[in-house]
Design a protein that fits this description.
The longest helix has 25 residues. This protein starts with a strand and ends with a strand. Helix 1 runs antiparallel to helix 2 and helix 5 runs antiparallel to helix 6. It contains six helices and twelve strands. Strands 2, 3, 4, 5, 6, 9 and 12 form a seven-stranded antiparallel beta sheet that branches. It is globular. The model has no long low-confidence stretch (mean pLDDT 94). The chain has a single domain, classed as PPM-type phosphatase domain (Phosphatase 2c, domain 1).
Length: 253
């Protein structure tokens, strides 16, 4: 039997935004979240293009040797699709999206990320952030120019340094992680991580029942005010011979 994801997902518009610019997909070997941005429905269009594009990898050969090339090819296709959409409709100028995706290969978990949609792994009751935010704030933290306490009030705390926007300066990051049965993964838009601490994430994610863990996180962020769209995927790595199926959420539906 193969190592695959048993995944659950929810998306919520939040308590402030008028529409949901997040998109997501879950399947047995692919999970992904995209957080769109831009006026005139641009964010919804961009995130949907990203998720529909990355969904084409759900049935790729499960080889970690091939997946980096496949990821890069698909990211280029998505980026070009966003560029074409803006050319065809200039009102969409400035639209873009983050994208974070995990694929279970035969021996690794392949992670792709662009932007600040995060990926965490929970193993032996410890939480590890596998992605690194592509944000100005993260760069300033790395340079020790600001402290963690200054993040919430920084005027440019939401500024991305990488996003899918149809430009040619894109630098996606791809990491191959060891796969261990029983690992749990969290993919989420910043609507969750902007309001919920890492400690709170771990408390919820150590609940055995995946659906209960997911609902606990969603209830917590709504109780905190949910000023942004919130999309959450919780996935456990299991042995399975289940037939692969796709579920789209948010703007990609």
């Amino acid at each position: 039997m193969a190592q695959l994801f048993a995944a659950s997902a929810r998306t919520n518009v939040g308590l402030v935004r008028a529409g949901n610019e997040d998109s997501a997909i879950i399947s047995q070997n692919l999970i992904a979240v995209a957080d769109g941005m831009g006026g005139h429905a641009g964010g919804e269009i961009a995130s949907a293009l990203a998720i529909k594009g990355i969904s084409r990898l759900h049935d790729v050969a499960n080889s970690s040797a091939e997946i980096t090339e496949k990821f890069l090819e698909e990211v280029a296709h998505i980026n070009s699709a966003i560029e074409r959409a803006v050319i065809e409709n200039p009102d969409l100028t400035g639209m873009g999206t983050t994208l974070t995706a995990l694929i279970a290969t035969e021996d690794k978990i392949a992670l792709l990320y662009i932007g600040d949609t995060r990926c965490y792994r929970i193993r032996k009751n410890k939480i590890t952030q596998l992605s690194t935010d592509h944000t100005l704030i993260q760069e300033l933290l790395d340079q020790r120019a600001i402290t963690e306490n200054e993040i919430k009030t920084h005027p440019q705390r939401s500024l991305l340094t990488q996003a899918l926007m149809g430009r040619d300066d894109l630098q996606p990051e791809i990491v191959l992680n060891d796969a261990k049965l029983g690992d749990r993964f969290l993919l989420c838009s910043d609507g969750l991580t902007g309001e919920i601490s890492e400690g709170e994430l771990l408390t919820a994610l150590t609940i055995d029942d995946r659906e209960v863990a997911l609902e606990t996180l969603m209830k917590s962020v709504l109780a905190a005010g949910a000023p942004d769209n919130v999309t959450i995927i919780v996935a456990d790595l299991v042995e399975s011979d289940a037939t692969n199926s796709l579920q789209f959420l948010g703007a990609a539906q």
